[in-house]
Design a protein that fits this description.
Blueprint: E1 11-14, E2 21-22, H1 24-37, H2 45-48, H3 55-64, H4 73-86, E3 93-94, H5 98-107, E4 111-115, H6 120-127, E5 139-140, H7 153-162, E6 169-173, H8 176-184, E7 188-192, E8 210-212, H9 217-220
Parallel strand pairs: 1-4, 1-6, 4-5, 6-7, 7-8
Antiparallel strand pairs: 2-3
Helix pairs in contact: 1-3, 1-4
GO biological process, one term: DNA repair
Keywords: Carbohydrate metabolism, Hydrolase, Magnesium, Metal-binding
GO molecular function, one term: metal ion binding
């Protein structure tokens, strides 16, 4: 979808799960732990990976099946979150090329930060496991404000903290709600097509400004 080189942005914001970090395996193994307590069969990686961006609720619905409402979902969600918190970075790692991309942003003096729907008590613990996040200017979680994506407020809050204009900021994410939030905030939006992009609509219909297949492509848009 790229048509021309863009002006160097004042800042770039990223979604977390499925964009910066590949968290699918730790989330999926947490789901399978919960299922084991119910004597239910595990879910395969191929099944849970596309759903990883949908959080505990989405994963539990996947694992419990069409009768998921017959379970005490809130109790299972608490079990899920407790187990995940204690096993949050066993298999999680940056997507290929992402750490290098963040290093390049530092080199070009482009401020960057994280805007995720992940709750803060998980986000804060996860980010401390990776030294690259010491350079993040702002980390906005799903409960930082009263609203979360697809509402644009978390993105605008991040821009205000970073003292940059939303129109001069890019947002990169792997879910339709990311692109919707970025578009509503007036940002240049990028689909991280390496992530967990399962949605009822193909990514070509998300109305993103750009679709990129590898993190390193991001730098080429202004360098």
């Amino acid at each position: 979808m790229r048509e021309k080189t863009l002006t160097k942005p004042q800042g770039i914001l990223f979604d977390l799960d499925g964009t910066l970090l590949d968290t699918a395996q730790d989330l999926g193994e947490t789901l399978n732990y919960v299922l084991s307590t119910l004597n239910k069969p595990p879910v395969s990686y191929q099944q849970y990976r596309p759903v990883a961006s949908h959080g505990a609720a989405g994963l539990l619905k996947l694992g419990l099946g069409e009768n998921w409402q017959s379970y005490d979902v809130e109790k299972l969600r608490r079990i899920f979150l407790d187990y995940y918190l204690n096993n949050i970075s066993v298999h999680t790692e940056f997507f290929d090329g992402m750490a290098e991309t963040l290093s390049q942003l530092n080199y070009y003096n482009i401020a960057w930060g994280v805007v995720t729907n992940k709750p803060a008590f998980l986000t804060d613990v996860l980010l401390t496991q990776y030294p690259e996040f010491r350079h993040s200017q702002i980390n906005v979680s799903g409960d930082t404000l009263k609203v979360r994506k697809p509402d644009p407020a978390p993105l605008l809050h991040a821009c205000q903290h970073m003292q940059i204009n939303a129109e001069q900021c890019w947002y990169v994410g792997d879910a339709h709600r990311d692109i919707e939030a970025g578009n509503r905030a007036g940002m240049q939006t990028f689909v991280a097509n390496w992530g967990y992009t399962q949605d009822e609509r193909p990514v070509s219909q998300w109305q993103a400004n750009h679709i990129i297949e590898h993190p390193c492509e991001l730098i080429s848009y202004f360098s």
